[in-house]
Amino acid sequence: MDGGNTIKEIYFDNNATTKPLPEVRDKVLEVLGDNFGNPSSLHSTGERARNYLNNARESVSRLVGSQKPSNIIFTSSGTEANNLALYSCIKEHRDHCRIITTRIEHSSIRKMCSFLEINDVDIYYLSVDALGRIRLEELEKALETQTDLVSIQWVNNETGVVQDMERILDICKSKDVLFHTDAAQALGKIKFRVEDLPIDFLTFAGHKFHSPQGCGGIYARDKFRLHPILFGGFQEEGFRPGTENLPGIVGMGKAAEIRIDNIDKVIHDLSELRDGFESKILDFIPGSKINGDSVNRVCNTTNIMLGRIDGRKLVKMLDERGLRCSQSSACTNFDPSPSYVLKALGLDDDQAYSSIRFSFGVENTIDEIEDAVNIVRECVDELNSENDSNS
Question: In the predicted model, what is the mean pLDDT of residues 11-29?
Fold first, then answer.
């Protein structure tokens, strides 16, 4: 509350998580009510739960672009799915394993790779250029050494930059190397069919396209190349044992159905929101600049450097006025260090600290864009005045 008036919330942090849509919430409640059950139970209540689970798997499979729903393995998150992909590689190559990845991957890949390195796995980290894209010639050269897996994020979660996946896949296919992509920020925002591409493993998280949190998954072209991290029952054919999060998965299935029917409109509408917001910020705030490739980006994301202001203070000020945004991935927001992604693009510490990520979802509106621009402008002006008075 502020002076007796409720502050209107404007949520522009959809890369961290999205709000489940009303239809999704209704579907979750449907399962939490009389349609509950354990999909592994043999009685009729269990059978009903299995039907819900299988229908959700079919819907997610269609969104991914696979004709084989059985190639979708549900997990608790994109993080678990990423770990599963990398772990499966090292289990398959026990004597020696080499993985190529990038310096701007999500922390679930970075930290898994750090763990693997101290356990004698050879990890090669590709650098990126100032636009946030890998250098294809560096990938080609790195592949001159025998490699077991290449893992490259399709869309960066902080900048929204899209890698040249077609060229990357051509290079990897020419070397007959397994390929994994973290597609958490790509699925539902980029149109593709995974079966039309030489992708061996693709990981995703439902809460990035308006499903509940706590459910994700992995597409595996050959699921028998997966090696489970957990051990227990035969859920998910034993590749991911443990009772499935049925309400979350069913919600993800419903969110997938909605996105399949509306993906062209979603891409168009989110692009308009982002571009409208971005153009006004760049016009109104001197010294502001887009971080990363402004052309090859996913439709809903902008990462803006706002002069030399203290971005940490700015995020707090914006939050006090109802505008939710972030400086980096939600998984690293409590790390006081500047964004490793922006540092990899060549920004110095001050530039990285002054950069803010705004990411939009299907429930955001043009009116919110106008209000948010005014809030950002006011807060930046306050910080600049404060800096001037202290200089």
Answer: 97
